[in-house]
Write a structure and sequence with these properties.
By secondary structure, the protein is an alpha+beta fold. A 4-stranded antiparallel beta sheet has the order 1-2-4-3, covered by helices on one side. The protein is built from 5 helices and 4 strands; from the N terminus they run ααααββαββ. The radius of gyration is 62 Å and the shape is rod-shaped. The longest helix is centred in the first third of the chain and has 61 residues, at about 35-95.
Length: about 240
């Protein structure tokens, strides 16, 4: 039995092992081109012509696109130029229409300056006379009222005790008592635009023909710049 096993082992060891072939996927497969050289060169030349034709065609397409883009820019520039020219024509028309505006503006400014100079002594007399009437004390009767404007701005008064003014106000009338004449002088000083009231003369009638014994007086005051209306002055700005 032992000998039989030994013989079988010997036989199995003596049999040669067959090696399987190894496949190499990356190995290059030899190729043999049996075409003539003329055909190969003709094919290469045809391929070169196709490549060059594609390059030329691409160049033409790019050039056409550039020309189209440039033409669009030229058209846009032409439209802008036409718009600018029409605007220039419109502005020139407007300029012709308003060419006389500077002259009219200068004439208006000159007229305003002349009016300001001429009306620089403007006083709202109706309002001022109403103020004088309202300030008149009881039992004081004015026989005359004279308002004189001499300058548009305050000047130098000849009387060192009075303020500079633009004119004078002179009144004459009668009163029952001297105290009422004094009240009238005080009322003159309180009027807007009036200052430095003075009494020129005052006398009480002693004649038996005048039973009222009225005091006859003459008084005046300085008219200041506050009495001016200033409505014709040039506004700032």
């Amino acid at each position: 039995m032992t000998d039989q096993l030994t013989d079988e082992r010997t036989e199995s060891e003596e049999q040669p092992v067959k090696a399987e072939p190894i496949r190499v996927a990356w190995a290059a497969i030899p190729r043999v081109n049996l075409l003539p050289v003329e055909i190969i060169e003709a094919r290469q030349f045809r391929q070169t012509k196709i490549t060059l034709a594609c390059i030329v065609l691409g160049t033409l397409v790019v050039a056409a696109a550039g020309v189209f883009w440039a033409q669009m820019g030229v058209n846009a520039a032409d439209e802008e130029l036409a718009t600018a020219e029409s605007e220039i024509v419109r502005l020139q028309t407007e300029q012709t229409r308003y060419a006389a505006v500077p002259m009219v503006a200068a004439q208006l400014a000159a007229a305003n300056a002349a009016r300001t100079q001429a009306m620089g002594t403007d006083v709202l007399w109706y309002r001022y006379l109403n103020d004088v009437r309202d300030a008149q004390p009881t039992n004081v009767k004015l026989d005359s009222l004279t308002l004189t404007v001499t300058a548009a701005s305050a000047g130098v008064s000849a009387d060192v005790l009075s303020v500079p003014g633009i004119g004078t106000i002179t009144t004459a009338g009668t009163a029952a008592e001297y105290s009422q004449v004094s009240a009238w002088l005080e009322a003159l000083n309180k009027l807007n635009g009036t200052s430095s009231s003075t009494l020129t003369n005052a006398s009480k009638a002693e004649s038996p023909d005048d039973p009222t014994k009225a005091v006859t007086f003459a008084a005046g005051a300085v008219l200041t710049a506050d009495a001016l209306s200033n409505r014709y002055d040039k506004k700032a700005g």
